[in-house]
């Protein structure tokens, strides 16, 4: 079922959904099931699975020369989505990115996903890998998420790269995109960021999932600006609790967002690890309750494959 259909059928009740990482190479699918089993009890509407590009590493050979190897630490996004749908009968959503794919690779991946009965996608440009100073598109691929959306919407009308195909099958993917209440870190300002978001909607995006935020006013303002620009598709807030002292610096550094002063000061006052976790979870629970009162279509939790904290929060608000 499409995400938009889930929202319509909920009749105003906010959906519960989660994002997980694929297991590390060497782990089996049971690592994913172990993460999801406690959350499935809460009936998530959908589960999305991140995609991780190949990284380049250098290893010294016996003759002293360095050899470059391509390594993907978390392979298996598509297979994990298929396993989730088969095992739990819950819609799974793969991240589909620009980096590392030609247009032909993308078309083949979409054909596979269609054969597997996967109805939804979360379409992203993708981040630069460690060896890149900035994002470098694949030769013959897409440089921007908007270009990737165009290819998907073309397939949704039966238009493949090979225009000589006869009686080609039209796909029917529901397309999700990312939104940034505090703007994408590469964007010069929020207005420009919203301009490109509107372009994605005009090209066929069906719903938005936001980057995590810790100040609800950022989300409220973001939604207001979107509606003023006639961006009228569902905007699902992305949620993650702060649970360790180190996240005071790692979250702003890695996700380019601000932490509210009240939350940061409470964490700074405490020296106890468990108390810091409690502070973060309590903050997140109140944040979720306020978002539900606002009328959000759902709450999407970034679990980072740790289900315990997500379950505590969801049980407190649903």
What percentage of residues falls in helices of 4 or more residues?
40-55%
State the CATH topology.
TIM Barrel
Main pleated sheet:
8 strands, parallel, barrel
How large is the radius of gyration?
20 Å
The strand order across the widest sheet is 1-2-5-6-7-8-9-10
List low-pLDDT spans.
Answer: none
> Given the C-alpha coordinates, what overall shape results?
globular
Mean pLDDT: 94
Span between termini? 22 Å
Classify the secondary structure makeup into a structural class. alpha/beta
Helix-strand sequence: HEHEEEHEHEHEHEHEHHHEH
Helical stretch count? 11
Q: What's the number of extended β-strand segments? A: 10
Strand content: 15-25%
Q: What is the name of the CATH class?
A: Alpha Beta
Can you name the CATH architecture? Alpha-Beta Barrel
Question: What is the number of domains?
Answer: 1
């Amino acid at each position: 079922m499409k995400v938009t259909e889930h929202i319509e059928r909920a009749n105003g009740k906010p959906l519960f959904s989660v994002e997980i990482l694929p297991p590390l190479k060497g782990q089996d699918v049971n690592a994913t099931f172990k993460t999801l089993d406690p959350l499935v009890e809460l009936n998530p509407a959908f589960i999305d699975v991140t995609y991780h590009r190949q990284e380049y590493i250098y290893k010294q050979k016996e003759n002293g020369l360095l050899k470059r190897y391509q390594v993907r630490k978390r392979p298996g996004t598509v297979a994990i989505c298929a396993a989730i749908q088969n095992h739990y009968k819950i819609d799974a959503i793969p991240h589909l990115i620009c980096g590392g794919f030609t247009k032909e690779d993308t078309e083949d991946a979409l054909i596979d996903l269609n054969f597997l009965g996967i109805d939804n996608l979360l379409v992203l440009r993708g981040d630069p890998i460690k060896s890149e100073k900035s994002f470098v598109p694949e030769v013959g691929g897409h440089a921007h998420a908007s270009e990737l959306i165009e290819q998907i919407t073309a397939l949704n009308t039966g238009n493949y790269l090979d225009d000589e195909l006869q009686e080609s099958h039209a796909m029917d993917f529901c397309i999700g995109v990312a939104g940034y209440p505090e703007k994408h870190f590469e964007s010069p300002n929020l207005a420009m960021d919203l301009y490109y978001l509107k372009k994605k909607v005009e090209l066929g995006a069906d719903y938005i999932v936001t980057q995590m935020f810790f100040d609800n006013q950022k989300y409220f303002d973001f939604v207001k600006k979107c509606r003023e620009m006639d961006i009228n598709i569902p905007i699902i807030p992305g949620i993650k609790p702060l649970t360790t002292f180190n996240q005071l610096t790692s979250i702003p550094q890695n996700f380019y967002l601000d932490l509210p002063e009240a939350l940061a000061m409470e964490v700074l006052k405490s020296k106890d690890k468990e108390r810091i976790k409690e502070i973060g979870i309590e903050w997140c629970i109140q944040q979720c309750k306020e978002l539900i009162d606002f009328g959000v279509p759902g709450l999407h939790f970034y679990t980072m494959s740790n289900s315990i904290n997500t379950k505590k929060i969801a049980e407190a608000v649903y």
